[in-house]
């Protein structure tokens, strides 16, 4: 069901993609961007949007193709022309724990015991923590370029807006998806410190720096 919260969330998602690709293309660099987070997001979209092979709806299918295609393109830039600008020494978050945890939860608590539903559940849990390698990089360096912080903020706003989307759907049609709500809350909580510093520094025209 379409509503203003979902539309706004999708808009922020598209904005985050545009900001990221624009930053990398104009600077000819992927410095400050976590390859591991980007790889996790591609894994999220590939496992979630398997229904592209058997269902089609203009809006939803277009968005799914954009998300998969843009994530693959970003990884191409990071492993190809801009690879020398990525520093793996600071992109060191152990993502196997995130993937393993999401896989365990997906097997234990799927809506249905089918491969498609298990993979969909896996993608929901994984997306809730996929930003951690990126936030970890920012924490390690103690600062970030302004345009990178805009990207992270837009990505966080996208997921935060999906929470009122689920509430609105429940109030208007009694449809309730507790898994998506819980995962969205987890992700928003992970962003909370970043949102605060972004509001108090970046939006005030100051450089994004973590408190010492």
Automatic annotation (TrEMBL):
Signal peptide: none annotated. Keywords: Endoplasmic reticulum, ER-Golgi transport, Membrane, Protein transport, Receptor, Transmembrane, Transmembrane helix, Transport. The keyword Transmembrane applies. The chain crosses the membrane at residues 53-75, 95-113, 150-167, 179-199. GO terms for molecular function: ER retention sequence binding. GO terms for cellular component: endoplasmic reticulum membrane. It is a multi-pass membrane protein. The keyword Flavoprotein does not apply. It is found in: Endoplasmic reticulum membrane. It comes from the Eukaryota. GO terms for biological process: protein retention in ER lumen; protein transport; vesicle-mediated transport. Belongs to the ERD2 family. This is ER lumen protein-retaining receptor. It comes from Arthrobotrys conoides. The gene is ERD2.
């Amino acid at each position: 069901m379409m509503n203003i919260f979902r539309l706004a969330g999708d808009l922020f998602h598209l904005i985050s993609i545009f900001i990221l690709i624009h930053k990398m293309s104009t600077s000819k660099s992927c410095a400050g961007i976590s390859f591991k987070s980007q790889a996790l997001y591609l894994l999220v979209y590939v496992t979630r949007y398997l229904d592209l092979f058997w269902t089609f709806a203009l809006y939803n299918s277009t968005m799914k193709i954009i998300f998969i295609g843009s994530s693959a393109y970003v990884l191409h830039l990071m492993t190809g022309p801009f690879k020398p600008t990525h520093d793996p020494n600071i992109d060191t978050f152990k993502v196997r724990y995130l993937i393993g945890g999401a896989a365990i939860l997906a097997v234990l608590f799927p809506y249905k015991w089918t491969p498609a539903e298990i993979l969909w559940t896996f993608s929901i849990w994984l997306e809730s923590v996929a930003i951690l390698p990126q936030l970890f990089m920012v924490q390690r360096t103690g600062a970030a370029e302004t345009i990178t912080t805009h990207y992270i903020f837009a990505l966080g706003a996208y997921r935060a807006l999906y929470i009122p989307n689920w509430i609105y759907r429940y109030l208007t049609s009694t449809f309730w998806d507790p898994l998506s709500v819980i995962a969205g809350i987890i992700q928003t909580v992970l962003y909370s410190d970043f949102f605060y510093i972004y509001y108090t520094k970046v939006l005030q025209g100051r450089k994004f720096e973590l408190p010492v």
